[in-house]
Design a protein that fits this description.
This protein is mainly beta. It folds into six domains: about 325 residues, no CATH class; about 90 residues, Immunoglobulins (Immunoglobulin-like, Sandwich); about 100 residues, Alpha-Beta Plaits, CATH 3.30.70; about 120 residues, no CATH class; about 90 residues, Sandwich (Immunoglobulin-like); about 60 residues, no CATH class. Helices cover about 15% and strands about 35% of the residues. The longest helix is centred in the N-terminal third of the chain and has 18 residues.
């Protein structure tokens, strides 16, 4: 790493058997038949759920299929939200911009448009074995970044390295926005923008473990530590200047888990987060608790499947983190290309992992986001009930839907409710914006400021307007306000007034509006003092000649002064040599060792050709008052010091001022909906209605409730029969579906499953579809059909679900004993039939205690068909 950046270091199968006995592999663990089994409905997520995710699988990879299917099941992703890459066979590392566009981006955009997902698709989950780098040979972007805001080209190269640049169009306007993603998508994206993450690892087992741990984070509210580590690798620790802000933000809201530490040891356990700066290190298998974020600032952490000596982002996932990040090409050490530790504050607020991560990277074009995007351990969903609507209700014509929601807390009101039908957005049922005329009131240091909500009433606009009103009175309050999305950050301007003496209260009233739908809350009743230490950065330029000198005068807060100076006495000295001498003088001066003194740190000497050096001067005591010590730098005329003249130790002044937060919300704590729904606009038959209420803040945590109903407006019906009849299948089988309409004037019959349409038969009252289980991949798959008659009437059949599993090898010994491998504690049945059409009967049921399981055929030596079933 140099002054500009980091320099590169130049399935299991069945066993065959011949004989009179025919046997099959294991049967699935669970089957759902009846109403639409599309969504997992006992999970609630912040700012996004399975409804908002597009899962992309590589059809050529069985691992990609299985992982994607498992993700859909666990996160409740509707089957129409799955995109199959059917043409890509080029590996998991690189593809060209044209290949990326043709094989992924364009099919993804087409899917979103054609399936009516524009109003809900915000996240993309790339299910392993999909290339993670887009490269044209000169410019290299990650696939996740290219999906986020398009493929970006390099700017002017630095030191001959094309990727060492920071083009303006790579800036991410979503960063630091503290807004819902659908209201703050990056302004440099040319097409739809997605919060894309890749769930991957060196093998399927590791990726499945990451998914399982992310699911375990739900509702956990972790209290474990987050470490922001400043290592001895100075170049890779460049993020240390961001640490104090992240610590401060979390402490304001009562979270004291985020901590600064120093050192190179990564011997940690049970962390909720870790940011480091090392190229090679090792992490314990249990370094992280579920939901954690962790990454290291280094060149090649994004070389997740490339050969590299550096430790990659996958090490964080394998150590238990739910998300990580690394660059896929030499980035140089621009902190803008790496996550800001404020992402832990965003997580604390309740944002999902992907939202928090993308908001923390200002220029992500060269960085790959890996992990599970929806993990949100701090989300606080409300509760819900659906009045007068039970599962199985038969609905006709227009009905009134009456979901009823309650907020999790009084400062987390519910603002908007959307209706999803069969997993697809249908319509917003209600939306309570801040009401124009509501009055927000803030009392700062005894000064009352009122702000009427204007007609431009988004949360961000209200927060910005409120901040302006507060700043107009700053001469009285001695407080400055900074709008951050729906939040207003308050900083005290009184150096010598402790934060505990700066008081604030906040609230809202209806004002001239007919109802109060705007809320305002303060994080604390008094401001919080910083734990940060003030510093000043001195930079020295040019090549010294004999006789050139550098000097500094320190004026302590008690008025005493300390004068230091160094003079160059030799030819050939560099500015780094002379600056090091002054650095050493500061460190060894006894008069500066007291609590009101200073110390020097973080010395950096640029490459000789740049003739520049710098170091930091820190106050010996934390807090804003101690940072009022003054520095006065001077030099001989041949040398330059920046900045020159008197300066306090307050380059980080925003981290030194006492701080507080105000939060603007909208909505009500109890939100009852009465929504007229015209059932004639939907197909007759079986449907799933999901009402989603959103927290009235930028976090927009979802609270959901679902009902399965039957619509009955026409005489059209249809039956769906499936084979195998017991809805169990292995990958070696084919699934057969027979759909029979009750009328003959049928225009088409279409079968749907994971990934959308699986086939269509025109102009027949009965249609038979055969689906390859291997095409679908291991996992749970729902199937349903839609029948359309010549008048345009439609009928949607019940959903039948198959769990497709790999066969368990079933062996028959010469002694007449069946054996098969088992997992201890699970239940197995050995089943038998002489006629496949007649179904199977259970011969024996057992709970496995060891492997393999064994069972003798007995004296009958019955010839027929045998199989093993694995039960729930």
């Amino acid at each position: 790493m140099n002054a500009k950046g980091v320099l590169p270091r130049r399935s299991r199968n069945s066993l065959p058997f011949t004989g009179p006995v025919v046997f099959f592999g294991v049967l699935p663990r669970a089957v759902i038949l009846g109403f639409s089994a599309i969504l997992v409905l006992n999970h609630l997520w912040a700012g996004g759920s399975g409804l908002n995710v597009i899962v992309v699988v590589n059809q050529a990879s069985t691992n990609s299929l299985q992982l994607g299917n498992d993700y859909c099941e666990q996160r409740g992703v509707p089957p129409q939200n799955v995109l199959r890459l059917t043409n890509w066979t080029g590996g998991s590392i690189n593809w060209s911009p044209a290949e990326f566009q043709n094989d992924l981006q364009q099919p993804l955009l087409a899917l979103v448009a054609s399936r009516g997902l524009t109003n809900q698709a915000q996240f993309v989950l790339l299910s392993m074995d999909i290339p993670y780098r887009v490269t044209d040979g000169v410019n290299e972007n990650s696939t996740t970044a290219a999906l986020f805001y398009g493929f970006k080209t390099n700017g002017e190269p630095v030191e001959g390295i094309p990727s060492c640049s920071l083009p303006d169009n790579t800036s991410n306007s979503y960063a630091y926005s503290e807004l819902p993603f659908d209201r703050a998508a990056p302004n440099t994206a040319c097409t739809n923008s997605f919060l894309a993450m890749m769930l991957t690892d060196v093998d399927l087992a590791h990726a499945e473990t990451t998914l399982a741990r992310a699911l375990a984070a739900e509702g956990s509210g972790p209290t474990q530590a987050v470490y922001l580590a400043k290592t001895t690798d100075e170049a890779r620790s460049s993020r240390f200047v961001l640490f104090d802000n992240a610590v401060f933000e979390n402490r304001v809201v009562g979270d004291y888990a985020v901590q600064r530490i120093s050192g190179d040891s990564m011997d940690f356990t049970n962390l909720f987060g870790l940011q480091a700066g090392l190229d090679i290190y090792s992490l314990n298998a249990n370094t992280f608790v579920p939901g954690a974020l962790g990454d290291s600032l280094t060149s090649f952490a994004g070389y997740i499947l490339d050969p590299t000596a550096q430790t990659t982002a996958l090490a964080f996932l394998e150590a238990g983190a739910s998300g990580s990040y690394g660059t896929i090409v030499e980035p140089c050490s621009y902190t803008q290309k790496f996550p800001d530790p404020v992402d832990y504050f965003y997580q604390t607020r309740g944002f999902s992992l992907a939202e928090a991560y993308y908001q923390s990277v200002l220029n992500p074009f060269q960085g790959i986001f890996v992990g599970e995007p929806l993990a949100a351990p701090f989300a606080r969903p409300g509760t819900a009930a659906w009045l007068a609507l039970t599962d199985g209700a038969v609905l006709s014509h227009e009905v009134v839907l009456t979901p009823d929601f309650a907020a999790a807390a009084t400062n987390l009101p519910l603002a908007q409710v959307d209706l999803f039908v069969d997993g697809t957005f249908y319509q917003t049922m209600t939306n309570l914006l801040p009401a124009p005329g509501n009055v927000l009131s803030v009392v700062l240091n005894g000064n009352n400021i009122n702000y009427p909500v204007p007609a431009t009433n988004t949360l961000a606009a209200v927060a910005a307007g409120l901040a302006g009103a507060l700043n107009a009175e700053s001469s009285l309050t001695h407080v400055q306000a900074f709008p951050e999305g729906d939040r207003v950050e308050l900083q005290s301007l009184d150096v010598f007034v402790p934060g505990s003496n700066v008081t604030v209260s906040a609230g809202a009233s209806a004002g001239s509006a007919p109802a109060l739908t705007t809320g305002l809350n303060a994080a604390r009743s008094t401001f919080l003092d910083t734990i940060a230490t003030g510093y000043h950065v001195a930079t020295f330029y040019n090549t010294p000649q004999p006789g050139d000198w550098l000097a500094v005068t320190f004026t302590k807060t008690n008025g005493t002064t300390v004068d230091l100076a160094v003079t160059n006495t030799v030819a050939g000295a560099t500015i780094g040599d002379l600056a090091q001498s002054l650095f050493d003088e500061i460190q060894t001066n006894a008069a500066l060792r007291s609590a009101d003194g200073v110390n020097a740190s973080d010395f950096y000497d640029a490459d000789p050709g740049e003739a520049a050096a710098e170091f930091y001067v820190y106050a010996n005591t934390s807090g804003w008052p101690a940072a009022q010590l003054l520095t006065d730098w001077s030099s001989s005329s041949n040398l330059i010091i920046a900045p020159a003249g008197l300066s306090p130790l307050s380059d980080n002044v925003s981290d030194l001022r006492p701080r507080n937060h105000l939060y603007v919300t909208s909505g009500l704590n109890s939100l009852a909906v009465n929504f007229p729904w015209d059932t004639t606009r939907r197909a007759d038959g079986y449907h799933q209605l999901t009402a989603v209420a959103y927290e009235g803040s930028s976090v927009a945590t979802q609270t959901r409730i679902t009902r399965n109903v039957v619509v009955n407006n026409t005489g059209l019906t249809a039956a769906l029969a499936s084979d195998p009849a017991d809805n169990h299948a292995t990958l070696a089988q084919s699934l057969q579906f027979t759909i029979t309409a009750n009328e003959t004037n049928i225009s088409k019959i279409e079968l749907f499953g994971t990934g959308g349409s699986l086939g269509m038969v025109p102009s027949r009252a009965t249609a038979v579809f055969t689906v390859s289980a291997a095409y679908l991949g291991l996992g749970l798959h729902p199937f349903y059909a839609i029948v359309t008659d010549h008048l345009g009437n439609q009928y949607r059949t019940p959903t039948v679900s198959y769990r497709l599993v790999a066969p368990i090898p079933l062996a028959l010994s010469g002694g007449g004993t069946f054996s098969w491998p088992v997992i201890a504690g699970l239940n197995y049945e050995l089943q038998f039939t002489t006629n496949l059409a007649a179904g199977f009967a259970t011969l024996v049921a057992l709970t496995a205690s060891n492997s393999p399981a064994q069972w003798p055929i007995g004296t009958t030596n019955a010839a027929g068909f045998y199989r093993v079933k694995l039960d729930e």
